Amino acid sequence: MNPTHTGTTRTGARTRPGVEVSASDRPRLAPHVRLTFCRTRQRQILLNPETVVVLNDTGADILALCDGRHTVAQIVTELGTRYQTVPDDEVRQYLTRLVARRWVELDDG
């Protein structure tokens, strides 16, 4: 995924293309984005205006925890209980790409 948008989307929330997400950030889905289950595909999908993103299980699990309450560190810990190994840097890189696309917003931890 390449960064396509920059800027702040609303007070208290920020997007930071090109900057890694920190462990204390609290990610949440942007207001125009929705995580839902697609019966036809039998997969979780991310709905954006004019875009549908079919997610793999790990991506869906990460986004399900992006509720503005969990920190990135807590998300990594929770995923560690579900999977054997969860590389912290890969989760942060994934979230960084979603922030750059303005699909996820960050609140300071």
From TrEMBL:
Gene3D superfamilies: Coenzyme PQQ synthesis protein D (PqqD) (1.10.10.1150). InterPro entries: PQQD, PqqD_bac, PqqD_sf. Pathway: Cofactor biosynthesis; pyrroloquinoline quinone biosynthesis. Keywords: PQQ biosynthesis. GO terms for biological process: pyrroloquinoline quinone biosynthetic process. Residues 1-18 have a biased composition (Low complexity). Residues 1-27 are annotated as: Disordered. Pfam families: PqqD (PF05402). One of its GO terms (molecular function) is quinone binding. The keyword Methyltransferase does not apply. It comes from the Bacteria. Monomer. Interacts with PqqE. This is Pyrroloquinoline quinone biosynthesis protein PqqD. It comes from Streptomyces brasiliensis.
